[in-house]
Design goal:
Rossmann fold, three-stranded parallel β-sheet, alpha/beta, 2 domains, about 280 residues, binds nicotinamide-adenine-dinucleotide, single chain
């Protein structure tokens, strides 16, 4: 039997509508500032998506486009200036930064209450402690997609492939916080197939096209493919969709799965940040 396809686009659309309704009820406008340094075309595209998404739900956004030659102290001044502005509730520093700029220092200069990417050491530490305040967008979207299938976490075996600080580790922690039994796999895991085949929930975020095939999936599992690989101009995931859909119970497509949810989760984080700041948190 073929798996149900998890429609990330539709779930993201529902999420945006919910956010739009909540924004309309506020007595103030939530504000997001995106800082881009240099002219990387992919970054320019992502930033314009973020601004368009904000516009759709009624969130104010502004772009701070700094030249490639920006120094670390100029970048930090920009971030601190945004930290000080009460009408800006969320700040994003678009990565990657040009060579010579320290992204770790830049990200950690963001006021943690405005860290809508959830990437400051403080917010990641909160996640480790089991306090979910502002959580990274892709992991948050991944949890929403899993929940959309009716799958629960408590006592379930969850396997995450990929241990990056932006995706794999936070996804694993979010599932652990929800009482799943989590295994975190990476490039040095000796037998990936054996681990993956145990999973009721399998999240793949390695950036390796076709890494996971149908034979590595437990029948009926929920499979979330975070991977994005550009193959001959087309987006492909880390999961071999054709073989995987014959075994999985639910599976995300690429494109149209995790990507749209990541975008929607940034809006949700901005709304959460705005409400927290308005409440004086
Ligand atoms: P990364 O390169 O920082 O981390 C990749 C991880 O995968 C590493 O921990 C590595 O150990 C593991 N890995 C690599 N090869 C492996 C192998 N053969 N077997 C097992 N593990 C292996 O990447 P990232 O930032 O975590 O992103 C992962 C993928 O997700 C990329 O394709 C990226 O483009 C995609 N991504 C998608 C979204 C989205 O919105 N859809 C968001 C972020 C990242």
């Amino acid at each position: 039997m073929s798996a149900s396809i998890i429609d990330g686009k539709a779930i993201a659309q529902e999420t945006r509508e919910r956010i739009k309704a909540q924004v309309a009820e506020l007595t103030f406008l939530p504000g997001l500032a995106v800082v881009q340094v240099g002219d990387d075309p992919a970054s320019t595209r992502y930033v314009s998506h973020k601004q368009k998404d904000c516009e759709q739900v009624g969130i104010y956004s502004e772009k701070h486009h700094l030249p490639e030659t920006t120094s670390q102290s100029e970048l930090l001044d920009t971030i601190r200036g945004l930290n000080a502005r009460s009408e800006i509730h969320g700040i994003i520093v678009q990565l990657p930064l040009p060579n010579g700029l320290d992204s770790h220092v830049a990200i950690n200069a963001i006021d943690i209450r405005k860290d809508v990417d959830g990437c400051t050491t403080a917010n990641l530490g909160e996640l480790v402690s089991g306090n979910e305040r502002l959580v990274p967008c892709t992991p948050r979207g991944t949890i929403t997609l899993i929940q959309s299938t009716g799958m629960t976490f408590e006592g379930k075996k969850a396997v995450v492939i990929g241990r990056s600080i932006l995706v794999g580790k936070p996804v694993a922690l979010l599932m652990l916080n929800r009482h799943a039994v989590v295994t975190l796999c990476h490039s040095r895991t000796p037998d990936l197939g054996a681990e993956a085949r145990e999973a009721d929930i399998l999240v793949v975020a390695a950036g390796r096209r076709g890494l996971v095939t149908g034979g590595m999936i437990k029948p009926g599992a929920v499979v979330i493919d975070v991977g994005i690989n550009v193959v001959e101009g087309k987006l492909k995931g880390d999961v071999d969709f054709e073989s995987a859909k014959e075994v999985a119970g639910h599976i995300t497509p690429v494109p149209g799965g995790v990507g749209p949810m990541t975008r929607a989760m940034l809006l949700e984080n901005t709304l959460i940040a705005a409400k927290m700041q308005a409440a004086g948190d």
